[in-house]
Amino acid sequence: MSKPLEGIKIIDFTHVQAGPACTQLLAWFGADVIKVERPGSGDVTRSQLRDIPDADALYFTMLNSNKRSLTLDTKTQEGKEVLEKLVRESDVLVENFGPGALDRMGFSWERLNELNPKLIMASVKGFSDGHHYDDLKVYENVAQCAGGAASTTGFWDGPPTVSAAALGDSNTGMHLAIGILTAIIGRGQTGRGQKVAVSMQDSVINLCRVKLRDQQRLDRVGYLEEYPQYPHGEFSDVVPRGGNAGGGGQPGWVLKCKGWETDPNAYIYFTIQGHAWEPICRALGKPEWISDPNYATAQARQPHIFDIFATIEAWLADKTKYEAVDILRKFDIPCAPVLSMKEIANDPSLRASGTIVEVPHKERGSYLTVGSPIKFSGLKPEITGSPLLGEHTDEILAELGYSKDQIANLHTSRSV
Ligand code: CAO
């Protein structure tokens, strides 16, 4: 099966998570992704949170599958020359260094554009160019706080809370991948590359748009009827933290199931979709609620929504989360069990769909990683293990036209 991005050569000058997540996605779809790493150490995640001594950590292996690794010291003259050659032959350079690092290395956008006008340069930074914080280095949770996610996540009586989902890192990488693909199509029209930049703050804000919606509603009417604070609590002038309330027009909550006392994930998420009210009442054995004016409309239910959730929890008390969902699905009620990472790792459906895959690795043996969440009818991405540090250095240098002697000299000078 041919891969749509075959023939696209990408210099992957990324590290940690935001950039690597982007280039990994493009590698899955066929791009030749050359990960450029500092000789001796490489991407810092190779050695962070190791579970096997001296082997690449899962942090690295799960973000760098399907890539090739080239070690290169881009601060030596010889290293700069190799990078220049690579730039002339590549379609895209992706980087997520701290602000100004690439300029200091001598590879500003202007210089890259001069070396190869067709090159697309793609960057992740914490804040966008010109922002008053654009000199800051940024990690995941910093971005979640700057992007409005933390102030709106968690419970009203607790502090701002970050999400376990990588809204700042991998999410930014996904935005960047869309930007790169758009620039590739644009280049087909103009013949020229361009600079694509995505900030982590902006990417978080893009996912928090419903909270910006809520701020404007709050400004206008002074309350938010789908939040637990309504109608009995107080609203200030900023969007509050809403616990596990549904973010759309459908009330929902995380509800206890059988075994919650000992199993931290014995819960389901239950959504009361307006038109599903009748089936919900039937499922719960409460047919009288269907026509009761205190329950019949969403507006009538809202003042005692937590009493309704308590009734549902009483119904759930003798059912496991799986049994509950099996009953509720027959009534077309939007719900799901709260799944632990262990359950996700072993889920046969996720294995069958290729969302969770087991891949071989030269040092680690096999390990679990994520496969493509995007499914195509004409492409089944095959996930391969991440490269060892510098595994493809000689191969890539030979492709660039270096002779065996020249390659040996580059090794001797520690430029690769
Ligand atoms: N050869 C020689 N030097 C290299 C090199 C190579 N192959 N690769 C990187 N370097 C150098 C850079 O040139 C830079 O040198 P100077 O600072 O002397 O110019 C240095 O390594 C490190 O750059 P850095 O600022 O990116 O690294 P850091 O560990 O201090 O910061 C991070 C890490 C992530 C905070 C920062 O890169 C950043 O803010 N990136 C943008 C936002 C981002 O992507 N954050 C998400 C990370 S995922 O959680």
Automatic annotation (TrEMBL):
Pathway named in the protein's UniProt entry: Metabolic intermediate degradation; oxalate degradation; CO(2) and formate from oxalate: step 1/2
EC number(s) given by UniProt: 2.8.3.16
Record-listed substrate binding positions: G248, G249, Q250
Top enzyme class: transferase
GO terms of molecular function: formyl-CoA transferase activity
Catalytic activity entry: formyl-CoA + oxalate = oxalyl-CoA + formate
Top-level lineage group: Bacteria
Annotated binding of CoA, by residue: 15-18, 38, 72-75, 96-98, 104, 137-140
SUPFAM superfamilies: CoA-transferase family III (CaiB/BaiF)
The entry's keywords: Transferase
InterPro entries: CoA-transferase_III_domain (IPR050483), CoA-Trfase_fam_III (IPR003673), CoA-Trfase_III_dom3_sf (IPR044855), CoA-Trfase_III_dom_1_sf (IPR023606), Formyl_CoA_transfer (IPR017659)
Residues at the active site: D169
Pfam families per the UniProt record, alphabetical: CoA_transf_3
Gene Ontology biological-process entries: oxalate catabolic process
HAMAP family: Formyl_CoA_transfer
Family, as annotated: Belongs to the CoA-transferase III family. Frc subfamily.
Function, as annotated: Involved in the catabolism of oxalate and in the adapatation to low pH via the induction of the oxalate-dependent acid tolerance response (ATR). Catalyzes the transfer of the CoA moiety from formyl-CoA to oxalate.
Subunit structure: Homodimer.
Name used for this protein in its record: Formyl-CoA:oxalate CoA-transferase
Organism: Pandoraea sputorum
